[in-house]
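DATA SHEET
Item: assembly model
Revision: 1
Owner: S.N.
Input lines:
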Amino acid sequence: MTTKNLKVSINAAAKTSKKSISLKQMFSDLKDARFLGRQIFIRDTKAMFRQSFLGLLWAIIPPFLSGGLWIFLNYSGAVDITDTGIPYPIFVISGTILFAMFTQALNIPSDTVNAGKSMMSKLNFPREALLLNAFYKIVFEFSLKLLPLVVISLAFSFSLGWSALLYPLGAMVIMLFGFSIGVFLIPFKMLYGDIARIIALGTQLLMYATPIVYPMPDSGIIKIFNQYNPLYYMISIPRNWFTGLEVSTSIPIWIGLVVSLMILFIGWILYRITMPIIIERVGA
Amino acid sequence: MTKERTEDDVLIKCESVSKKFCKDFKRSLWYGIKDVSLSFSNKGNHNNELRKDEFWAVKDISFELKRGECLGLIGHNGAGKSTLLKILNNLLTPDVGQVTMIGRVSALIELGAGFNPILTGRENVYNNAAVLGFTKKEINAKFDAIVAFSEIGDFIDSPVQNYSSGMKVRLGFAIASEMEPDILLIDEVLAVGDLGFIIKCLNRIGELMTKTATIFVSHSMPMVARVSSHAMLMHKGVNQFSSTDTAQAIKQYVDLFESAGRVNQGTGDIELTKVELYNPQTKSFVTDDSTLLATGDDLRLRFDLDIKENIKDFNLSITMFDGQLRETLSASSEYKNRQFTNTGQGRQHFEVVLPNLILSTGKYAVTLVAANPLTGQFAMRVTNCIFFSMKAVGISWATSVMAGEWQQINQS
């Protein structure tokens, strides 16, 4: 008679919340979720491209369109933008890519979890898989945008120094920042539609308030605002790494990294606690 | 944590489980937030009381199930069966009590969830199997068996959105049943399949059942009777009846809908005023349900009818319904063209003899019908007019049981 070691799982009232945030349980679930997260990511990506004609292009086009718009406005003289020291197209596009990644990282977690609502209410699986799916999507999107940027730089005969290799690393920081806030906001976005609208408005405003399409002015409100704007550091530092411009200090970006990880951890805990309740009451 | 497998192991333990829901949406979300915060403090929580707009979907359910046993869960719509299954499958947290599940759990609660409609069936097998907890190695090993069992043929490479609901069920069932689980939870998904599929499914469930503890929810009483070793009848969230006597549980389920009292479903031109059965033990006619007959006994039924003047001719027939609501025996004056004529005297007396009964063991309900010989219209149809019990000469799943006359013969 063969003996088997069988997993014992207990589903009990009241104790669940405390148990679900034990570190051991959290990382064990994350481990269980790895294969599934990758599987769901592959499934969603395949499905997305199957029903699309332009397919991959949709990931690449948007920052180039918005960047292209600014390039056109600048060259046509409609808008007068101070010289940045490097070809304007590269300045704009390397910046808009980073901001686009931030916005996407902000929204993809809750979109993924929302899409997985019916799955969560009907099937028993480690829910971290949805977060992993969101993370893979964001990294995938970024990698699609990176290649054309390099191609355009070469087209402008812009020489890339060694510091350009730090650009993807810097991009990871802003993506992590957006991702951590996105995960934190998941339960709120699922409950109240207002949050999604506030985010949409907010990111639009930030796009202009942060020096993305124009260089940082020497004085004025914008300068003061952006000294406290984490996005400014997370965009300008990697951009300067990419373009070879001088970077006075990279400390702000490391601070940003640490803060992002903290927010991510808190958001993860919040996700674990609130998902059972929300799915129970809202789940499809 | 893990547990070593031993003989006779209890795999499912449900202890005083209760779950409440809130009818109002906004209030429900607010209660949710409150419950989360309260669960962190050591203060007592609202778990035993009903707040405004709340109701108990499941109240105080306790049972144990061992490997090899199958629990048939029956009840009216909204009795709490699916809620209980979701609690067992860790999708919902109970408000009171706890559930212990030992081993791997495979649930056929919703087969299409986890399928992405745009991808083909083949691609979805990977995804769905991963959601159910297979590892990559396991999926690769079982892939061909799954596709073969589902019998979808060429359509496996077609997008799932083109599948009929039966095909989706086949695929989902193929994946879930290949899992070799310790616990199997099945919620009414088989209603959609065709006959061939249902037979295949029941066979596969039968194969799995010796190694698993199974909970089976269905509204199809014959299926429940065939497959379950135990039955639990849920009524408005409460365990109304549970035992190994599945026939009794089914009878109670039926009683919830059909009154055990007599109902005349005909036009009313003929009324049944008295019915009695001959009880061979007391050697007298009785009007209660106490008659017990054995294989080979005759059934003698006497009844009085009040017949209105507008009825001229009529056929009388009698039908026996067993504990699983199957019609097992039917006799009619029509079969030998022996119809009756209204004598016009109001109350008239009748008797029918069914000789040499070979019904199987169980309790039977008698339905009496008086119908127009030409149109077939019911002047009277009384269900459950009387009950009797049958003790057959042997035990069998069949509806008719007899000893038969066996002998060895010389064939030249």
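QC remark: Residues 310 and 331 of chain B are 25 Å apart (CA to CA).
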